[in-house]
Design goal:
Helices cover 30% and strands 25% of the residues. It is an alpha/beta fold and 554 residues long. The strands form 6 sheets. A 6-stranded mixed beta sheet has the order 2-1-3-4-5-6, with helices on both faces. A 5-stranded mixed beta sheet has the order 13-12-11-15-14. A 5-stranded parallel beta sheet has the order 18-17-19-16-20, with helices on both faces. The relative contact order is 0.06.
Length: 554
């Protein structure tokens, strides 16, 4: 991606130099050279007033799908304004990148961006049809139908129920060539695998022509080709390699022995003798599962067959951090906005509801329903949806990742999004108590027998580890924390620092330092995290510190 930096003033050149320090491929232009930048660059940042930039680029505008995206930065560097090529030219994303680099504020006026609605032309799959009309209907709150051959992990869309009323604008998800008389956007899912074979020297033109005719006769869209597949002995055939490149899809090669195991309707002993498998095109199309929709077709030197693969859902297990919005990671925000279904504890959903896109389906429940939420998230992902399962802190630490993955299988993709754990948030507030070896132990015996918890506390005491106690105390469990502290006190001094952090990074946050001998457990609640130092931990200038060295050095 080549970025043109167009400047007219010293301040503009200074800001452009700052961008150039961080971005790999930038080129500097004077205002008089804007037309040359238009020809040479994929995107342009103008350090000019918006009005001036508009007058300069107006004669250059052609097609939004091929024009470079344009962003303007004001003289003071306060704003990065997307001017032209919002989605198609990448200007909206460019505005955010420029703002991040310069400490400016991105200004994007595209309606879908302004309202948080998923842009149909950035759905992650090829789209055709009247994007503007269907988008306008969505933004106006009109009836919009969603019709799909299968459930794909789409982003959230503000649509009505499947099917919709006659004549209503429609989002149609299909790999078939269909007529769309009403205002419609056709989304082409990556559902087709085209298996190809060819004699030595087959040309790309012949392979492409055979693929096109095979799909056309079956009424299938080439935009839904996910990949070409062939036998490993054909992986380097120039014509096949060039055909995959021309289609813009990967070429996957399977060992002949693997293809020989695939049951196909049209095996050939001649092919077996030549390449070690009775089928190339059909077997390659079916090698990773799916259903054969077009049996083998032949040309003079090539063969092709088409299989339809089953959609794979997507489960993102998202750690929300300890509660503060600025401790929620950008990756977590992206996953929340990508998911069509969000599953979580009602309190956690409330924290992030404003980040969800219109049309997001929310599945929420109260305390004590963790297993139910995990099963719901897995079921939705298995059905093919894009799902975000919420957990506090890091979802893999005493949270939702474990129960979800215990119930998961390999029919959908799983993405883990790490979050700032309660232990790390509390540690940062206290000082550096986790500066050396440490462990985390939950004192809740709801899922773990107390005998096992007590053995772990004793082992931590024996090993002289710093211990972070999760779920330390509640109204129904008042004796476990004193018992755990008693076990630790057998192995470390009464003056060992103990930190208690309640509601870390949330309203009502409190931080207290005490010692193993003086801690008042009545100050500890279920929302607290208790960190007990090792025998080497100290309080330095009011901060809880565990030195990185085994011996304390003043």
């Amino acid at each position: 991606m080549t970025t043109g930096l167009v400047t007219a003033t010293r301040a503009g050149r200074t800001a452009a130099d700052r961008l150039a320090e961080h971005w790999a491929d930038t080129r500097h232009y004077a205002v008089a050279d804007l037309a040359r930048a238009w020809r040479e660059c994929d995107e342009i940042v103008c350090f000019l007033a918006v009005g001036a930039a508009v007058r300069l680029i107006a004669p250059l505008l052609g097609d939004k799908r091929t024009d470079p995206g344009v962003v303007c930065v004001d003289e003071a560097g306060r704003f990065a304004v997307a001017v032209a090529g919002g989605h198609a030219g990448g200007a909206n994303g460019l505005a955010h990148r420029v703002a991040d680099a310069l400490g400016a504020r991105p200004v994007v006026t595209t309606a879908t961006d302004a309202t948080g609605t998923s842009p149909l032309d950035e759905i992650g799959m090829p789209v055709e049809g009247d994007v503007a009309a269907v988008t306008r209907a969505m933004l106006d709150g009109d009836e919009v139908a969603l019709v799909s051959d299968a459930t794909w992990p789409l982003p959230p869309l503000p649509v009505t129920a499947m099917g919709g009323g006659r004549g209503a604008p429609c989002v149609l998800v299909t790999d078939r060539l269909v007529e769309t008389p009403r205002p419609a956007v056709v989304v082409r899912p990556p559902s087709l695998v085209v298996g190809v074979g060819g004699s030595r020297g087959v040309t790309a033109e012949e392979v492409l022509a055979l693929v096109a005719s095979t799909l056309g006769e079956a009424g299938l869209a080439s935009a839904s080709i996910a990949r070409l597949a062939t036998a490993d002995v054909k992986a380097g055939e120039p014509g096949i390699v060039a055909a995959a490149r021309a289609l813009g899809v990967p070429l996957v090669a399977h060992p002949a022995g693997r293809l020989a195991e695939v049951d196909v309707p049209n095996p050939s002993e001649v092919v077996r003798e030549a390449v070690g498998t009775p089928s190339v095109a059909e077997a390659a199309a079916l090698a990773d599962g799916g259903d054969l929709v077009v049996p083998k077709r032949k040309s003079a030197m090539a063969t092709a067959a088409v299989a339809r693969i089953r959609p794979r859902g997507r489960l993102a297990i998202v750690g929300l951090g300890p509660g503060a919005r600025d401790l929620l990671t950008p990756r977590a925000v992206a996953e929340l906005r990508r998911a069509s279904h969000v599953v979580g504890l009602d309190q956690y959903v409330a924290q992030v509801r404003d980040l969800l896109r219109p049309g997001t389906r929310v599945v929420e429940s109260g305390l004590g329903a963790e297993e139910e939420r995990a099963r719901s998230a897995v079921r939705l992902a298995r059905e093919g949806h894009a799902v975000a399962l919420l957990g506090s802190g890091d979802a893999g630490v005493y949270a939702m990742a474990s129960p979800a993955l215990e119930n998961a299988d390999d029919t959908f993709d799983v993405v883990g999004v790490p979050g700032v754990t309660a232990m790390l948030a509390a540690s940062a507030l206290l000082g550096a108590p986790l500066g050396h070896d440490h462990c985390a132990i939950s004192l809740s015996d709801l899922h773990t027998p107390w005998e096992a918890i007590e053995r772990r506390v004793a082992a931590a005491a024996e090993a002289d580890l710093v211990v972070a106690f999760y779920n330390p105390r509640s109204r129904a469990r008042g004796w476990q924390l004193p018992r755990a502290l008693e076990i630790l006190a057998r192995r470390r001094p009464a003056g060992t620092p103990v930190g208690v952090v309640t509601d870390a990074s949330r309203p009502g946050e409190s931080v207290a330092l005490s010692t193993l001998g003086d801690l008042d457990v009545e100050t500890v609640t279920m929302r607290s995290l208790v960190i007990v130092g090792s025998s080497r931990s100290r309080v330095v200038a009011g901060r809880f510190v565990t030195p990185r060295e085994y011996t304390w050095q003043r």
